[in-house]
Amino acid sequence: MIKFISEKRNIFLAALALLTAVTASRAATGFDIALIKAAQSFPNAVFDYFSLFFTVLGSGEVTGVITTSLAAWLFARGHRKAAFYLLVFFGLSIAIELAMKFSVPQPKVFPEFRRGLKLPVPVYSPFTPFAYPSGHATRSVILTIVFFYMAQLKIAGDQARRAAKAALGIICVLMLVSRVYEGSHWPLDVLGGVCLGSYLAALIIRQFQKDNF
């Protein structure tokens, strides 16, 4: 999977361009509404709790701390270029996300689809007029792919490696679904974040490889 993401990264860039055009045209509003209704058709208190957990976990504050800590770890082990580009592309992801949320005319989720779940801790959310793409999805996919790559290289034993990859994949999928379930984002917002995050993660991995990591 990592090889495909790294070598075929332009596929994700093309998909992002296509999704952005479709989103801006409002041609897929019916698709967004149908999927968000399906995701919210069986509200569950347990998943409410997990949605709140993933909202905090994928926030800029938490993912920023994780990314900075990982960069510090890489720097301490002599992978300075990898650490530098990890921070650069993570920062770039936020800049691109915000720029698109000011330019791609995708309205935020309609009030009737917002579940109004109360966060246990405050999370900063900058004002943007539009919703596309999901920053949570972008950041989560970046970190998931980076940690997936690291697990592939650093975890000894096939069983432990598979377990780590499965855990990363499950956490990421739940994060993505939770954004739609709780009414924070339309499905296309999340898909756009997946494409943006995958493309930037591929660029990060390329720099990791150049730095012999």
UniProtKB/TrEMBL annotation:
<feature type="transmembrane region" description="Helical">
    <location>
        <begin position="130"/>
        <end position="151"/>
    </location>
</feature>
<protein>
    <recommendedName>
        <fullName>Phosphatidic acid phosphatase type 2/haloperoxidase domain-containing protein</fullName>
    </recommendedName>
</protein>
<feature type="signal peptide">
    <location>
        <begin position="1"/>
        <end position="27"/>
    </location>
</feature>
<keyword id="KW-0812">Transmembrane</keyword>
<feature type="domain" description="Phosphatidic acid phosphatase type 2/haloperoxidase">
    <location>
        <begin position="82"/>
        <end position="205"/>
    </location>
</feature>
<feature type="transmembrane region" description="Helical">
    <location>
        <begin position="51"/>
        <end position="75"/>
    </location>
</feature>
<feature type="transmembrane region" description="Helical">
    <location>
        <begin position="187"/>
        <end position="205"/>
    </location>
</feature>
<dbReference type="Pfam" id="PF01569">
    <property type="entry name" value="PAP2"/>
</dbReference>
<dbReference type="InterPro" id="IPR036938">
    <property type="entry name" value="PAP2/HPO_sf"/>
</dbReference>
<feature type="transmembrane region" description="Helical">
    <location>
        <begin position="163"/>
        <end position="181"/>
    </location>
</feature>
<keyword id="KW-0732">Signal</keyword>
<keyword id="KW-0472">Membrane</keyword>
<feature type="transmembrane region" description="Helical">
    <location>
        <begin position="82"/>
        <end position="100"/>
    </location>
</feature>
<dbReference type="InterPro" id="IPR000326">
    <property type="entry name" value="PAP2/HPO"/>
</dbReference>
<keyword id="KW-1133">Transmembrane helix</keyword>
